[in-house]
Amino acid sequence: MSTPAAAYTDAALRLRLLGERFHPGHWGWIVPLAVTILAGVLRLIRLDHPHQLIFDETYYVKDAFTLLQSGVEMNWPEDHNEQFAAGNPQPENTPEYVVHPPLGKWLIALGMAVFGADNGTGWRFSAAVAGTLSVLLTALIAQRLFRSVFLGGIAGLLLAVEGHHLVMSRTGLLDIFLSFFVLAAFGALLLDRADGRRRLADRLAAAAARHGGSPPSTLLRYGPWLGWRPWRLVAGILLGAACGVKLSGLAFVAVFGLMTVLWDMNARRVAGIRHWVRAGVTHDGLYAFVAVVGVGAATYLATWTGWLLTGHGYNRQWHATHPPQSWWEHPVPGPLRSLADYHRQSTQFHGGLSSGHDYASNPWTWPFMGRPTSFFYEGHDDGANGCPVDTCSAAITDLANPVIWWAGTLAVLALVFLWLGRRDWRAGAFLGVYAAGQLVWFLWPERTMFFFYTIAYTPFLILALTLCLGALMRFGGPANRRRNTVLVLAFVVLSVAASAFFMPVWTGEVIPYDQWRLRMWMSSWI
């Protein structure tokens, strides 16, 4: 029979706080890298097609070009897309008012710096890299969360072939970078969670060894300080970068900041700390705020370096004609006051954005994929561009894989029961991310919104689905588990088959019109 002192050995504490050790071995890298290679092939092949700016590439790709040239976004003549694609860009010599921070456009610019600004590979390469690396991160995160190389491989494979993620990875827009940084920040917080629990176990075990097998009661009131948390700082940097792509990253900052403190509170509770809520605030929460919010804010400010240093960006000299009005404004440097006013204008723009658009959609429709976004469409007659019949279509539609997307929506509903019924912290984490990426948009019901905003949480939809698939595999006795594993594999095969079926309308392939129409299952998809 174990003694109370045995509860505070390092081995016992690590078992309670971290569970059994998981050793994935060589397959823990082979499988994730295999699905990443598949993802890279799907995202990089014919990346330069079509050789024209599609959808909002007309804004972000051209902004990226002027960032390379001037350090800030500059205005363009109207109807300049064809001239730009032809390799003859001629921006105007006046700064442009843009509503999104510059980091995503700087990342697009990196691809253009390597491959040139006159081809689709240059415009879209950075997005393809971000999408490919997201598959690797998803596979590794799933492997760690579910302690299974097999489930990690399933998660990576599903994201690799998922059409919504594929289209966004092959288009020079901002949202895939937001998705990547959010996912990477979550991975960093997972590493911080494990590191913090190891530190807690080590400190309590060391104190117990010095005091006859049990930590002193004074230490068990609030627990030890855990000191330097490098992975939490990394998460702060990544979340700041997410906001540097799009300010909708702020919702993830709020959710992740709260989530990491709740994880620490629970760790102290499991370890036997009596005042674990208060300790989670005083010993962990304040430092988490500095790491996530403080470091994130500094990172976000750094993304504006080009605007701050060049002096000729939009609104850059606002402070010169607007002297400080309050006592607290006087110590603030002029460029920072100009940047603050820039953000005031941007906030007003976002809040009042209600212009109509053919492919605008309400967040209520996103879980059902009611109105995906058409990025590109061309019709071809007999013989034109390889059309073998009377009429052909070439389309790039931001349409998710229906099998994966609708199953993922059901998985999110199942997470509620897993979280409430089993207190599964993973389910709670995925629900939090889903809320940050989906529910937050209900705060602005009149704003013009698009389905592709959901790419920010798409990897987590895959993780939620994988969690449910893993639960199904473990349900029942040995015979049921074998049958359920076959069902899981059948689902994966069906998902891959669905991706093969929809691939032409994700990549702009010329196909007969009736074949394109066959893939438009709902009239709202057209």
UniProtKB/TrEMBL annotation:
Intracellular or extracellular location(s):
Cell membrane
Task: Report keywords, A-Z.
Answer: Cell membrane, Glycosyltransferase, Membrane, Transferase, Transmembrane, Transmembrane helix
Q: Into which family does the record put it?
A: Belongs to the glycosyltransferase 39 family.
Please name the pathway: Protein modification; protein glycosylation
Q: Which GO terms describe its molecular function?
A: glycosyltransferase activity
Grouped into one coarse class, the protein's main location is membrane
Keyword Membrane listed? The answer is: yes
What role does it play? Protein O-mannosyltransferase that catalyzes the transfer of a single mannose residue from a polyprenol phospho-mannosyl lipidic donor to the hydroxyl group of selected serine and threonine residues in acceptor proteins.
Annotated InterPro entries: PMT-like, PMT_4TMC, RgtA/B/C-like
Enzyme Commission number(s): 2.4.1.-
Q: Which residues cross the membrane?
A: 26-45, 122-142, 148-166, 173-191, 233-265, 286-309, 403-420, 427-444, 450-473, 485-506
The protein here is known as Polyprenol-phosphate-mannose--protein mannosyltransferase
Q: Which domain of life is it from?
A: Bacteria
Source organism (scientific name): Citricoccus alkalitolerans
Instruction: Show where the Glycosyltransferase RgtA/B/C/D-like domain sits.
Output: 100-190
What are the Protein O-mannosyl-transferase C-terminal four TM domain coordinates in residue numbering? Answer: 337-525
